[in-house]
Write the structure tokens for this entry.
Amino acid sequence: DTSGGKNVSSGSAEGSTKKELAKLPSFQGCEKTSPYLKFTVWKEQWEVLIPDYDVTWRSNHLWEHLDETARNKLIGCETDYAESMRRLTRLYGDPQKVVKYVMKEVLLPKAVIEGDYDGLVSYSVILENNFNHLRSAGHEHEMSNTTVMTSILKRFPRVVVEKWNEHLAEQERDVISKLFPALVAWLQDQRGVWERMVAISEPEKKNAKSNFGEVEKRCFGCREVGHIRRECPVRPNKGGGCTEKARKPTRVKKHWCV
């Protein structure tokens, strides 16, 4: 902030030399912005840059770089910079909350059906992104327990799970003890195959759609091309010049027994 930079320069101890200050990062505590996943990275960046700012104005700078949700968490300690940082860390940096949020993101998608290579690519990317969030917070091994891994593997087709088990059987014990990072690394290798399958299937889908679009539509009511009976703007026996002739009643032949 420009105004913040001016305040810091005027309030500096030496005052004679003005230093160009780096822009401080902002933090949003709103649930929609995934605050539990972003807090650790934000805090690291903040603590690198904030020492260049005058101690007197740090609480003001912190307040200016928080959204309304995060500010509401600091009511009562707005002017106490140290207590504000401790409270934010307690609320958004709790490892259990981070893991809980990641679990919610990872288990939200539906199970991928057999042959859905696009779904496999998408779900593997979700797992990798959330693993990176955990790793940046130093909690990458928190999801390696059996219960969590079972829930994740249930979202993959049976064939994929079988291949994963075969791969796992060939690994050393230290890899097996870190199942979630090992799974993410294995999925990265498999993703290349799935992406090629998606590229192969895309032209087939387009051809199928184009062939279907060439099928002629013909109305059985007015015999016109371009729409079907239920879409017909002119229905029989309702006026409007339908060319279909009224059907004659069927003659019933009478047979007399002698």
